[in-house]
């Protein structure tokens, strides 16, 4: 059992992620600006968590955790203070608290800006990818966290298949339940530490795909 903090705990991915984390025996604290919107389950504590606050305030709320997930997203409404600097603050807070494990939900090719204009789905979210580019780079280059960055293709509200493809491929989407399950399973796979993982819908069971990283 691990104590896990989920940043952006009221979102679409977070709701499934929290269920998956609890199902494998973890204690979850989920933070959001509107904690009343966080899924209500046993072993889940909802807290008010505002990424506009100071690193010190965020660190107090995250203190005592074994791992942090960043799955927050402003959907284009607050890219600088949520998707970019908000993410950086949680990294700084994790290091301040001595939390080593940090798992980031990012975007396909977020670290490869030359690809963005060539893929219509990425060209349409250019500013979001700029924010993720800086957040991902900060995590890799400016922290000593045991990070994993998951970069899924376009998220879709479809039933999960339990199967994915890692790396290059032709698929351009991922059902949200598969992204959440992959995030949850990453916590059990120390072989993913220090890796940036691109994922799409595919034919390989999630556990098997992660084992091969």
UniProtKB/TrEMBL annotation:
Q: Which intervals of the chain form a coiled coil?
A: none
SUPFAM superfamilies to which the protein is assigned, alphabetical: NAD(P)-binding Rossmann-fold domains
Superkingdom of the source? Bacteria
Q: Where is the NAD(P)-binding domain?
A: 8-189
A Pfam match is NAD_binding_10
**Protein name per the record:** SDR family oxidoreductase
Q: Which organism is it from?
A: Limosilactobacillus agrestis
């Amino acid at each position: 059992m691990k104590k896990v903090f989920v940043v952006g705990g009221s979102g679409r991915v977070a709701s499934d992620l929290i269920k998956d984390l609890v199902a494998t025996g973890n204690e979850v604290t989920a933070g959001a600006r509107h904690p009343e919107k966080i899924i209500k389950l046993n072993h889940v504590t909802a807290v008010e968590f505002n990424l506009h606050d100071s690193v010190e305030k965020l660190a107090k709320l995250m203190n005592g955790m074994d791992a942090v997930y960043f799955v927050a997203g402003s959907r284009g409404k607050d890219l600088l203070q949520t998707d970019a600097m908000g993410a950086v603050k949680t990294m700084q807070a994790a290091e301040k608290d001595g939390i080593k494990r940090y798992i980031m939900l990012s975007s396909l090719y977020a670290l490869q800006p030359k690809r963005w204009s060539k893929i219509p789905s990425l060209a349409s979210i250019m500013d979001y990818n700029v924010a993720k580019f800086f957040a991902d780079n900060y995590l890799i280059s400016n922290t000593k966290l045991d990070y994993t960055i998951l970069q899924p293709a376009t998220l879709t509200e479809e039933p999960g298949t339990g199967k994915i493809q890692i790396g290059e491929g032709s698929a351009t989407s991922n059902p949200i339940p598969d992204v959440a399950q992959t995030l949850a399973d990453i916590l059990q796979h120390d072989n993913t530490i220090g890796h940036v993982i691109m994922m799409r819908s595919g034919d390989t069971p999630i556990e098997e795909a992660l084992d091969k990283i």
